[in-house]
Amino acid sequence: MTPRPVTLGDLPIRDDLRGRSPYGAPQIDVPVRLNTNENPYPPSPALVADLAGAVGRDAASLNRYPDRDALALRGDLAAYLGHGLAVDQVWAANGSNEVLQQILQAFGGHGRSALGFEPSYSMHPIITTGVSTRWIPGSREEDFGVDPGKAVAAIEEHRPDIVFLTSPNNPTGTALPLGVIEGLVQAAPGMVVVDEAYFEFARTGTPSALSLLPGNPRLIVTRTMSKAFAMAGTRVGYLAADPAVVEALLLVRLPYHLSTLTQMAARVALAHRAELLGTVDRLRAERDDCVAWLRGRGLTVADSDANFVMFGRFADRRAVWEALLARGVLIREVGPPEWLRVSIGTTGEMAAFREAMTDALAASPVITTPGGSGRDDLEGIL
Ligand SMILES: *Cc1c(COP(=O)(O)O)cnc(C)c1O
Known about the structure:
This protein is α/β, with parallel strands linked by helices. Helices cover 37% and strands 14% of the residues. The chain has two domains: 126 residues, Aspartate Aminotransferase, domain 1 (Alpha-Beta Complex), CATH 3.90.1150.10; 212 residues, Aspartate Aminotransferase, domain 2, CATH 3.40.640. The protein is built from twelve helices and twelve strands. A seven-stranded mixed beta sheet has the order 2-8-7-6-5-3-4, with helices on both faces. Strands 9-10-12 form a three-stranded antiparallel beta sheet, covered by helices on one side. Strand 3, helix 4 and strand 4 form a beta-alpha-beta unit. The structure holds pyridoxal-5'-phosphate. Pyridoxal-5'-phosphate (PLP) binds next to helix 3. Pfam families: Aminotran_1_2.
């Protein structure tokens, strides 16, 4: 007799995980993929050749564990970040998602809480609850900024152990003024994580929260090589903070978490950073053109300091998303319910997006009245 198929509900899974959905940006194979904020430019033949050579060299020692503390990579990352940072102030892991998870493991946990201002990156609450930490959803304003007075009030009311600030924010693209971040670092009783995954795409002159690190040992700034560095497949994220924060993370990280090959690929990419970051200027120009084009079509578009643009508002965003997909263009249904997000692609990909959008707009009514990003709209999006 064949046994009855087992479902999740049959297993003794943790009560707080019952009924939850996993992170799930669709991975659909279409010609124009503009849905996960990747850099559309693949590595150059020169970089590919350097990577292949380095794999050849490192392969001969794969019987050994990697450098457990990834010191050479962390040194390279510190040099890239500047701000006088030393190797003991920088930490790296498999994507900034793993960095965030380690932060939660060290500073969150059972009986503790984390606060973020939504709409924001959906992985923040998923990672938070994944380590049995309570998630407190704070809110953003109509323009997706964070009101300092209300944010301080929320911090004082809830006394969270961790505060998440995403700047530039995903999915809205909006950056936070440094003064707002500084005020919240002062107000927070625990750790403050500024997720700067998109920092390199910010408009010229936008300051990094890295400049606030001196004298603020409870501040952590996270970055990633997945976006500007065009290395999403490598899985390397990192942070800068006080050396004591790095000591805390050593208590929870798995030994040898960053493979020899990962450390090597990240270092080779950093050595080629002029080339990789060279695509950032092109993407920023393409982004600004995209914002202007969408506004020219009568759409509402959030200011963007990232490599994506959130736009709306649509009575039926699903219909627009599907119309684009039918034309081979995959964007993301994320954020408040009347909005969509498009990642910035190559010039050709953006032309395909505009062409598909022109068709989609002909069939879909656009809402032009103000409002629509209030709390009620955000139910159920994260
Ligand atoms: C893409 C993204 C990350 C990065 O994730 P990785 O794990 O480094 O690939 C982190 N934070 C935000 C807000 C993001 O959008």
